């Protein structure tokens, strides 16, 4: 990753301008060309540095439902439970954290009903009761990683 | 020419965008052709969705671990109900805090109602930054915990149930 990659990533985290030829605008800003920027971005997506480019729809405004949930998983079963969750399309990401609640994951579902069913299914499959912590208020969403 | 798309075109456009924005010089023209519309209509529709808050920006999802952001801390605090909005807004304005949400307590197992995500490259530095943040906001004496992640099992940004992929993923 070189300096142009870094500047491109930092700039795109702020959003692509909504105009007919957005790459032309960025090329002028970054002193590059429209085609070069697109090639760079494609490579960063292909090699896994970036996982997605485009609009991120707010699932809740589209009628979907999100939650953050946690489990206390016995150490001997940790990998097996992680694999069980990884196979479920509703699980967006899953982290081990240093806490008695040692597994934390986000669920994204098409509806509240689907979310409840998903939590129940996790309980049935793992024998563990999820701690369900849906957000009640959003104070700030501003993921920005300067690279 | 109508400014906005008909419902079928609008749905088709959203489906196309779920896999991301095509990396072309004129991406909206390309999308417009696929749904039988004009470039300007597609731009107007996307602008309207953005104004309505359906999405915040045409942006990136980073594999933050691949980029070296491996010190991923979830700071959780037990804030008195009467103060939570004020404290949440204050912490949410801090550049260090990338996400800040109120979530329910689940007593007796879980007492914390304010969640802040802090991402950095080095754990020691993130720990020091969080300690300074709490001190600055006079929160050090309230119950709190910092949960660092030690392993990521699945991180896929925008893939969910098939009907709703491409949504933002912060739970």
Strand content of chain B: 15-25%
Could you say which structural class the secondary elements and strand pairing of chain A correspond to? alpha+beta
Helix content of chain B: 25-40%
The largest β sheet of chain A comes out as: 4 strands, antiparallel
Largest sheet of chain B: 4 strands, antiparallel
Quick check: average pLDDT of chain B? 88
Order of helices and strands of chain B: HHHEEHEEHE
Helix content of chain A: 25-40%
Number of helices of chain A: 5
Termini separation of chain B comes to 40 Å
Order of helices and strands of chain A: HHHEEHEEHEE
Instruction: Calculate the mean pLDDT score of chain A and round it.
Output: 93
Write the CATH architecture name of the largest domain in chain B. 2-Layer Sandwich
> Low-confidence parts of chain A lasting 5 or more residues at pLDDT below 50?
none
Present the secondary structure layout.
The complex is a heterodimer of chains A (147) and B (171).
Chain A: H1 3-13, H2 22-30, H3 34-46, E1 50-57, E2 65-71, H4 78-86, E3 91-97, E4 103-109, H5 112-126, E5 131-133, E6 137-141
Antiparallel strand pairs in A: 2-4, 2-5, 3-4
Helix pairs in contact in A: 2-3
Chain B: H1 7-18, H2 27-35, H3 39-51, E1 55-62, E2 71-77, H4 84-92, E3 99-102, E4 114-120, H5 123-136, E5 144-155
Antiparallel strand pairs in B: 2-4, 2-5, 3-4
